[in-house]
Amino acid sequence: MTDLLIRNLRPMGASACDMLIRDGRIVRTGTELSADGADIEDAGGAIAIPGLVEAHTHLDKTVMGMGWYENTVGADLQAMIDNERAERRRLGIDPARQSMRHALALVGNGTTHIRTHVDIDTDHGLAGLEGVLETREALRGIVDIEIVAFPQSGLTVRPGTAALLDEALAQGADLVGGLDPCGIDRDPKGHLDTIFGLADKHGKGIDIHLHEPGALGAFSMELILDRTRALGMKGRVAISHAFCLGMPDWQRTEALIAALAEEDVAILTTGAPSREVPAVKRILAAGLRMGAGCDGVLDTWNPWNRPDMLDRARIVAQRNNLRSDADVIAALHVCTAGGAAVMGVTDYGLGPGSVADLALLPGTTLAEAVATGGPVALTVKAGRVTGRNGRPLREAA
After folding, report:
1. What's the pLDDT score for residue 150?
2. CB of 151 within 8 A of CB of 117?
3. Would you say residue 266 has pLDDT above 90?
4. Does residue 397 register a pLDDT over 80?
5. What mean pLDDT is predicted for residues 119-131?
6. Across the strands, what pairs with 358?
7. ∠391-395-397 over CA atoms, to 5°?
């Protein structure tokens, strides 16, 4: 493993210094450091942050590089699910090729860790998982990819899906996913019993998409909490989107947040501009782990999102009305250390002994870096330069 000396960087916007990296870990920072035989990079005064963490995306869905996709179904959730399942075959979406394109675009934009949900359904079986597993192996040492086996089309409404999820977990998926147990399956008990049963069987964690709003979402969340307690899964469950936590009934929401904190259930947000979302400051103040993600990028669902977690920090800040520099930095925290905590990333940070996962950002302050949005000058993964000027060094097919 090559040693690396980065000159003239500013850790978290502090004064300029040098950083010495050996065997993939930060050895020390200081002025006028030297290291015989090390590769040398000049950061030019860029701000160094720990690598950005994409904690909620769908690598297997993108049509990136396949031309413009004309969306004819609009914003109805069930229509979008059914349309995507059909369009995968018509468009010839290759999960290995497309996940590689998506993941490398994230790398170029400073990402060092990804949690991706991969569709498992009775039409396409484990094809999505197999493709993303191929990408994960090919990008080992460039980006870490964590996979959630995700029943996008429903679970109890599509017999055979549970067996496929079971097989996906046996073949290498890291977590089991779920989706709107009331709104999609209309069987919250059956849906959650199956998901928690599979997690218990395989000793793996859970990450559930919960789009359900208001009181319906709160009801599903309470059922998730019940099972988390019953199975002793404290700290091993995450809820993505959690739109119900943005409902106006603050007394109900406050009670839910307290219960989530007691069971250490993590929250993953996309800062969706079209929906009520969990309030970042309230979630963090309660001590919950909170990460963020770009969700689907350039897919059959929407044309808006970018594979760019610095841009996502800006969106999260705007959606939460975060304006002061300190609050904007909190949005960046959700897209870095917050996501790392949700994913259980160890030795994360910029201190001596930390794994040398870095992103170098332009700007005079962290808040300015979020507001202006890059491009990321340098991405470093375990001491290896993997991206430069917003682009990955490895080419995608």
Report:
1. 98
2. no
3. yes
4. no
5. 97
6. 50, 380
7. 130
SS3 assignment for the chain: CCCEEEEEEEECCCCCEEEEEECCEEEEEECCCCCCCCEEEECCCCEEEECEEEEEECCCCCCCCCCCCCCCCCCCHHHHHHHHHHHHHHHCCCHHHHHHHHHHHHHHCCEEEEEEEEECECCCECHHHHHHHHHHHHCCCCCEEEEEEECCCCCCCCCCHHHHHHHHHHHCCCEEEEECCCCCCCCHHHHHHHHHHHHHHHCCEEEEECCCCHHHHHHHHHHHHHHHHHCCCCCCEEEECCHHHHCCCHHHHHHHHHHHHHCCCEEEECCCCCCCCCCHHHHHHCCCCEEECCECCCCCCCCCCCCCHHHHHHHHHHHCCCCCHHHHHHHHHHHHHHHHHHHCCCCCCCCCCCECCEEEECCCCHHHHHHHCCCCCEEEECCEEEEECCEECCCCC
User: Where do the domains of the chain lie?
Assistant: 4-50+350-392, 52-343
Longest dimension (CA), the chain: 64
CATH number of the structural domain 52-343: 3.20.20.140
- Class at the top of the CATH hierarchy for domain 4-50+350-392: mainly beta
What's the rounded Cα separation, in Å, for the pair 190 and 283? 29
pLDDT in tens, 54-98: 999 999 999 999 999 999 998 888 999 999 999 999 999 999 999
- Kindly report, residue by residue over 8-62, the tens digit of the pLDDT: 999 999 999 999 999 999 999 999 898 888 999 999 999 999 999 999 999 999 9
